[in-house]
TrEMBL record:
The lineage of its organism: Eukaryota, Metazoa, Ecdysozoa, Arthropoda, Hexapoda. Keywords: Glycosyltransferase, Golgi apparatus, Membrane, Transferase. The gene is LOC26532247. Signal peptide: none annotated. It is a single-pass type II membrane protein. Belongs to the glycosyltransferase 32 family. This is Lactosylceramide 4-alpha-galactosyltransferase-like. The keyword Membrane applies.
Length: 381
């Protein structure tokens, strides 16, 4: 009798355990995202790619900051009073982590220097495309190895990180139909030419100041009258630092640049769609191909200012190593003492390391003009 009661009780217990387990499995299966597994669900995200509702940036840790669309999120760029950077590496076929939000220390330096010296301008860093889903690097756990760099630039209240979708950004502009034709995406230099495309499109949309990610701003540019660029040689203007007014003549120049970009686009020539665009447009405005005449006679250029090389490109591309050579420190600092900014020619210099504390010119610029990014870089800048 006792054995039979014990056996029946054990069977009842096992039966009830089985029922509870089955209910738990069914509930979990019903509520789990379709097609998801534990490995694929991110632990922290920047915001869904197509999330239509932007939210204001919060004071939460970086890993939970949303990257909202520049066309939707507040604050929006103030026409003619904003500074823009573009990050286009998501189109680099060598980029293995397309959805990881990242910056180099030198890019962070460019952003910080712009924010530091121009506190009355809003600085927008536009990360191209909608694929960003992580701030953290999944290979190093919940805290990004780059978090100190983001902390450095976001410590400035006038710095805003945004995402940018090419098709939405071009919609309603003269580039909308041209972009759909697909010529841009057949370029041999896709990352560079998307950057070229966007700098002129951004200036058409908002006006303001465009800066390349390989500049260091040395002093305020807030009081420079709008509508200017700089010469990089005796034959070409450069497109790495440009300012256009949001309306009037500046907007007309931006429209002319977009028209030239479409008309003369060549995906097989690196500079055809960047510096050569602003050079050709300036030649039309000024009625001359002589860069020296453009610089000395602003009336001839109808108010469009062409700065000499000393303003932004005092160290020419063939002398880029001078930025990294401690023995060239005094010469380089003297050459750039009146410059508004320096351009460090990233296409040549990106793989040249600088040890923190170096006495080369680039390190000295960084220590003074982007101190937070410089000290957050680690052992090498």
């Amino acid at each position: 009798m006792i054995l039979r009661y014990f056996t029946n009780g054990l069977l009842r217990l096992l039966f009830m355990t089985l029922i509870v387990t089955l209910i738990g499995i069914i509930t979990l299966t019903y509520n789990w995202p379709k097609g998801a597994d534990v490995e694929s669900v991110p632990q922290s995200t920047v915001g869904a790619a197509e999330d239509p509702e932007p939210t204001a940036a919060s004071s939460e840790p970086l890993a939970s900051i949303r990257l909202d669309d520049v066309l939707l999120a507040e604050p929006r760029p103030t026409p003619g009073q904003s500074i823009f950077f573009h990050e286009t590496s998501c189109y680099d076929v060598k980029n293995k982590n397309l959805n990881i939000l990242k910056l180099t220390a030198r890019q962070a330096c460019a952003i910080e220097s712009a924010a530091l010296h121009n506190p009355n301008f809003q600085v927008f860093v536009l990360f191209v495309d909608r694929k960003y889903s992580h701030v953290v690097d999944p290979n190093v756990g919940n805290r990004s190895i780059q978090q100190p760099l983001f902390d450095a630039i976001l410590s400035y209240s006038n710095v805003h990180l945004r995402r940018l979708n090419l098709w939405r950004y071009a919609a309603g502009t003269p580039m909308e139909e041209w972009l759909r034709e697909g010529n841009l995406f057949r370029s041999r230099y896709l990352v560079s030419h998307i950057s070229d495309f966007l700098r002129y499109l951004t200036l058409f949309r908002y006006g303001g100041l465009y800066l390349d990610m390989d500049v260091v701003v040395l002093r305020s540019m807030e009081d420079i009258p709008p509508n200017y660029t700089g010469a990089e040689s005796d034959t070409f203007l450069a497109a790495g630092i440009m300012n256009l007014a949001a309306s009037g003549f500046g907007h007309q120049i931006a429209a002319s640049c977009l028209h030239d970009f479409q008309t003369n686009f060549d995906g097989n020539v690196w500079g055809q769609n960047g510096p050569e665009v602003i050079t050709r447009v300036a030649q039309q405005i000024c009625g001359t191909k002589n860069i020296s005449v453009m610089q000395t006679n602003r009336k001839r250029c109808l108010g469009f200012k062409v700065f000499g090389r000393g303003a932004f490109y005092a160290v020419t591309s063939d002398k880029w190593l001078n930025f990294f050579n401690p023995h060239k420190l005094e010469e380089t600092l003297a050459r750039t003492k009146d410059s508004y900014a320096v351009h460090v020619w990233n296409s040549q210099s990106e793989k040249k390391p600088i040890k923190i504390g170096s006495t080369c010119a680039y390190a000295k610029y960084a220590e003074k003009n982007c101190p937070r990014a410089y000290h957050a870089a680690g052992e090498y800048f």
